[in-house]
Every structure is written in C-alpha cells, then in structure tokens.
Amino acid sequence: MIVRIGILTVSDRSARGEREDLGGPAVEASAIAGWPTGDAVGRPQVLRRLVVPDDRAEIGKVLRAWSDSDDLDLVLTTGGTGFAPRDITPEATLDVVERLAPGLAEAMRAESLRSTPHAMLGRGVAGIRGRTLIVNLPGSPRGAVENLAVILPVLPHAIALVREDQGPASAH
Question: What is the percent of the chain where pLDDT is above 90?
C-alpha cells in the first residue's frame, strides 16, 4: 500500500514569494522519515505540494479538489491555525470536511502543552472528506514537525479505516 500525501502550505508571504516556504518541506521530510515501518502500513509518497495565501475560499477550493480527486489519502496543511485575523485554515477546513476527527487535534495540542502553554492557542482541526484525511498543522516548521510526530503512529491505521482497506493495518 502506498499512502498518497498532499502538503498545502498556507501563508500570505510565501504565496507572494516574500518568504521561503520552510513549513511544507519540513512536514514532507518528517512524514517520510517518521512514517511507521512495516509491510502492513505501507510507504508514504508526497504527490502534491502547493503554497496558497491565507484565503478561505482558495484553501477550501484546493482541499475540495485534492480530496474529491480521490488520488490522495492524506492532506497535511501547515499554517493559518493561530489567532491572527488572517489565520483561517481551520474554518476553511471545516467548510470542506464531512466528518470531524477531533482526537488527532486534541492529541497534538495535549502533547504540545508539555512544551509550551502557547499550544492552547492552536486552532488546528482534522477531519475526513470522502476517503481523504485532512489534518491542520501549525505554520512554524518546528511546531508542524512536532505535531505531526504525535499523530504519525496512528495515521496508517486511520488511513486504512478511511479507505476501508481490509488488510492487517485495519484490523481491530
């Protein structure tokens, strides 16, 4: 099984070319390096990468297109999850998902609270659209990688369940 991943960076400055996108590449490297090993869980492959501005309609458009194309199992967003007025990635994600997966976001915030009280300011969400799992990660490369590390151990099983795979990864 190949786990097909898309990484969406949400950043006004990176979209305008004023700042290099460090979050997307950090998330990609972490997902590949940290993916649980074993034949039953498959290997990740990043098929799509994109940088968009903090625009609710644009984020939603990409999330819909990527999920509805049915060629991605997992979409990881980075950026736009804070308290700033332009931080609207969670709202755009909620516009798109059909079912919430609150345990993923709760686990990331809970673990992050061990390092910083600012973790309670994170507003990222996770949910499912069709057969695609969408997870919001913070915009800072460090925060994104740390949050992804928390949920990586369960992602193969979650994806198998969403895809209704009947192999060993989806056994209860």
Answer: 90
